[in-house]
Amino acid sequence: ASLPKENTVVEAKLMLGKTFAGVPAEPCWPFAVKEGEDGEPLVEVTLMGEHKSFRPQELCAASLAHIKHIAQAQLGLSTEEPLKAVVAIPASFNQFQRQ
User: Does the keyword Nucleotidyltransferase apply (predicted)?
Assistant: First the structure.
């Protein structure tokens, strides 16, 4: 089964630590980005028939959690076992984005 393209979020990392005004308008993005109450970007998707808004850091955290789950399964580790990893941060990120 294929997923609706409106729910395929790409480049969430590029929105980390930016205000809505600082996020470039990307006409090729299949999802909508709106401004949150505090000026942060919110990505809009439909999840199980319900419209939801997510902050970029929530989307990145979900991606990392999924990658962790896949790695634990491949390595035969329990989900309770801690998993060590290195996450690279782009050199172009400012201090706020690094946090």
Answer: no
* Whole-angstrom distance, CA of residue 29 vs CA of residue 71: 28
User: How far, in Å, CA of 87 to CA of 47, rounded?
Assistant: 27
Q: What are phi and psi of 35, to 5 degrees?
A: -90, 130
CATH number of 37's domain: 3.30.420.40
| Other CB atoms within 10 Å distance of the CB of residue 22 | 11
pTM for the structure as a whole: 0.81
Which domain covers residue 32, as residue numbers?
5-98
Model confidence over 29-40: pLDDT tens digits?
888 999 999 999
